[in-house]
Amino acid sequence: DTLRYNLPTAIKVDVGESLPGTQIIYEGRGENGANVLVNGQRALKRSGDSLYWKGNLADGVAADIRVRLAWFNEEAMYVVGTTQLDIRQARPTPGQIVTTSATKFGGPATYLVRKGNAIPGSSVTYEEKMPDEARLGGILDYPYRKAGDSIFWEGTLRPGVYIRLDLRLLQYDTSSMRVGGLVALWIGS
Questions:
Q1: pLDDT of 185
Q2: Per-residue DSSP letters for 109-120?
Q3: CA angle, corner 174, sides to 171 and 179, nearest 5?
Q4: CB count, 10 Å around CB of 34?
């Protein structure tokens, strides 16, 4: 019941703010580089330098953030890299989502979904191959999709963790379907 996401990460951090959910704070541009606080310790960082952080972003959400300082100025620093998120005791529930959190991650996702199973992070299941289309379960709207059709789902994974899946049906047969597209996660509100 743990979902793992490995997502590309690009974040702007304003002066005086932290990398969302972490103890990495941008203090501003210095004479020789970017002045950054990492877990309360001062660190001079230059473009290309690493900023790693591992910890809990919220209850049940562990993060391993591995970014590098892309560039910085007097107002903000910009970091790029990857983030691994482990969401424990995930219980996908469809419904309204909150997208106002500063802690947002997103990127591409592909899944192989066996017949009778759900797309990870959703309640959408692959039910069966019909003569000309696939029949899905766990959705309220029209359950049939042809190759190339969209599958959109949003809801909560656990309290305060929101997800949006914007996928396409890539391929299906009698035993499984393959979907791909984008996943977006908001942590907190």
A1: 96
A2: EEEEEETTPBPT
A3: 25
A4: 25
User: Do residues 134 and 149 touch, judged by C-beta distance below 8 A?
Assistant: no
pLDDT tens profile 88-112 = 999 999 999 999 988 899 999 999 9
The whole-number average pLDDT for the span 151-165 is 97
pLDDT, tens digit, 9 for 90 and up, residues 35-46: 999 999 999 999
CA angle 60, 105, 94 (to 5 degrees): 65
- Scored b (16 or more CB within 10 A) or e, 157-182 reads bbebbbbbbebbbeebeeebbbbebe
Q: Is the pLDDT of residue 49 over 80?
A: yes
Q: Please count the other Cβ atoms lying within 10 Å of the Cβ belonging to residue 150.
A: 11
- Edge-to-edge strand ranges of the sheet holding 34-38: 24-29, 34-38, 41-45
- Residue 31 has which token pair? 């004479």
Give the type of residue at 142.
Y
DSSP element (H, E) containing 93: strand 93-94
